[in-house]
Description:
The structure holds two protein chains of two kinds. Chain A is α+β, with helices and mostly antiparallel strands. Chain A is built from 35 helices and 27 strands.
Amino acid sequence: MTSLVLSLDEVGAGDAGFVGGKGANLGELLRNAFPVPPGFVVCADAYARFLEVLDLGAELRQLDSAPPEEIVQRCAVIRDRLEKEDLPRELADLILAAHGRLIANRGRPIVCAVRSSATAEDLGAASFAGQHGTYYYVDTAQLLKKVRQCWGSLWSPEAVSYRATHGIDHASVAMAVVVQEMIASEVSGVSFTANPVSGSRDEVIIESSWGMGAAIVDGRVTPDSYVLERADLRVRTQRVADKRLMVAAHLEAGQTARLEEVPNAMRRRESLTPDLLRTVAQWSLKCESHFGKPQDVEWAICEGRFYLLQSRPITVMGREDIGRDIKGKYVLFKPLVENFTDPFTPLAENLMTLVPLIGMQFIDGWMYVDVEAVRRLLPFKVSAEALADHIYSISKDAPAWKVSISKLPALLAIGLMFFLVNAVLFLRTRSLPDGALDSYRALCEKLDADTSIGPADANVRLLLLPKLGDPVGNMPLLINLAAVRFLSRMHILRRLVRRWAPDLRADAETLLGSGSDGVLSAEMGRGIWALAVEANRNACVRDMLLAQVPERALAELRLTTEAQDFLRSLDGFLAKNGHRAIKEWELRSPRWEENPAVVLGMVRNYLLIETEPSIHEKKAADARAELIGDLRARLQILPLERTFGLRLRLILFAAERVRYFLKMRENSRFYYIMGIGVLRKKVLRIESELMRHGKLKCKDDIFFLRVNELAGLQSGSLQWLDVEDRIRERRIEHIRLCKMGPPKTIGIEMPEKYAPATQHEGATLLQGQAASPGAYEGRARVILDPSIDVELKPGEVLVAPYTDPAWTPLFLTAGAAVVEVGSYLSHAGTVAREFGMPCVVDVGEATQKIRNGDRIAVDGNLGSVRIVPQQADA
Amino acid sequence: MTLLLQVVAFALGIYLSIRMIAALHGIADFWYMIDKAWLRVLAGVLAWGTTIGVVAWLMARPYQTAFVWGLLTYLVFYLSLLPLARLYVAGRRTDRYIEKDVSA
């Protein structure tokens, strides 16, 4: 063979310069008896030869001097020619001959995977980010075309933009192409021989799912996840996902769609047996041993046999990389991230910033507050670090900052304007009865039915701009903002209690400020409990729910006559709460009405416990009554209190105001989420239409487009090929960011005293913020996603990255709650107080420091969590 | 002193205008339960309307003028908020330039 096409077993690690990093790695592994599928490499020289034949030298030379706005267009011309022109005869024959040898060795026709292999090290990250082409199911007829398309992917807008950003010369890049027999995998996945986020070397992480691995890499499938002890490969934690989709290993004649539904019976079945898990781990560690550094390994299992598809060094991406290129100083906007820690998808972010936010900015999918912009407005002499810390922990009492006299006039003017703009709204929301926001439901239904209004316009109408005659119930977002008055009321309550009854229990204000009736998220939890009670009374329903996974149970219930009453109750529940979801602020999250099995999963959880949720509430109510009695007794000794009782009345009034605004905040959010549900429905209709016309290929891809790209697809100015690469790149980036989580600040070096509550290695005492009073000790249950981890035993301590109302039912089962990101005002704090259970929030890295089964002591008064040593527990 | 009192009257006019507008909004805000809330809504409108009338009637001429100006100024300000907000949103919407941005 010439150096234009080489067999994989002819290349090794030192050949990356002409076969690319991927080709060199695979060749190296194959030579060393790793189970790599056979294949060949179309070398970078072949690419260079093709460019010569096409006589693109002049175009490439002109790129350096081309104005930036013309670069994309010029690259598109290069790409077009690479993809459409025929290869030179000699080169085509070499490629087809190599392919012929693959088929001959196999003894039957095969399909291939055709993958780009960049030759430059600095393009390695671009490959990782999915910018360069990868094609599956390639037969002889398509082979040459796919090779050209791999070369063409070097000139996609995303790849060109990447090179421009990183200062890589366009004319200097080259691409090899790896062609291998495609493994018709039953199970595939990725494994990491070190934690890609923390860099920890004591664990091996494996993610696996049914079918081909492509869908895991770009996030179309949620895989099973295993964390193994590196030393003995013992399973430390495992999470079996609800695997709804898979990329088929085989295509039927005429079939183009590659994502297919996983059969119900397989959705929650573990994709890896213990033996296969061990096999995957062992081969991954062998890769690491061979290359001498931690590896990110892609693999597949076919007919019980393990295959290695790719191995590359892990790049540990720390949070410090996020926002590195952003100028300015920013702090994370916690009220949003405490609801879920993943970054928003591009479409969700785009809709939220339809009108640019003042003083705020999205950075890599998370919302941040511009600290300098806020500092300019405040009349205080305060450092950016101190201000960032206070913005992040807004519910703490404000520190005593010095006033800056020169800024006072501006502050007064701003304050006056704020008052004038919001005064009427604040008066209208002073004492709303329960049900005042119900009119919003009718508005949502009306807009949902109006197909002439797209998601962007619906967003404006539902969430941004009311009409003059609209009742205040139609403005859940504005009501939610108006509920911030809770902070001042809480401050007043605290001052009153501390002044007149300083020896009262430490959590007196918290207890007084909780216990409202009519909190919709708490009612939702009770609604699920009521479904569980009804299911429990019906042996047929109960048995089905306990014996099956929720999806299967739902399918069977629908066919069962005895279950119809229960299903009607379920429908009634969904009619009211169906717009809710896990990670409900994210447009991409399926709503309960789309997938009622999630609700059945919660019902099933309740069937496993015996304690009624009302017991928690009664306990809290009793504690409140006792506190008020204690308060009354302490106040009696003060002058004139016996006669007039004014102090007690004032304290109780302040407490009532706190409860009112907290309830308003929580309930307005219930309806705001309803608005998001309408937007999602509109987006799904557009998705359905675009998929019908072949402009989108996979469900969920639409959320990785921006509003203007969506409009382009609808109008026809964009086609699937125009958006395919950018969707893949954004999906891969999204997964990467999800694993990292957001940094608390960007552009600010926080001094030690303001450092985030990241915990020291080996720490047994974790600090956070007190959100609900009380002390509790119990076994920890770490739950990252309530749709996957549904097994929370009664009395276990819920440990979570965040919580939102979809997690509420878990609070009824748990003995206490520990949350990584949250605040006193957050869902976790609010619901924990309603249920009278201890809760500590803002415990940095809680889900990593605390493991399933650890015995932990939660102190909701001090805001601390202690991991009880094992020996003390014996 | 006269000027100061006029300013106070103007501010009082603004305050009562705010109260009156909020009371009038009650008609829409409680329309869904108007059969139960009509008394509350009516009481609010009448109370603030009467207050405005009584205050205006009790005030001497220069202060009465300032007071009425306060009422009207806030009313105009409030009624202009929504149109201004609409203009702002329409002008700042990032999805306006659809055809120009499709390749980015």
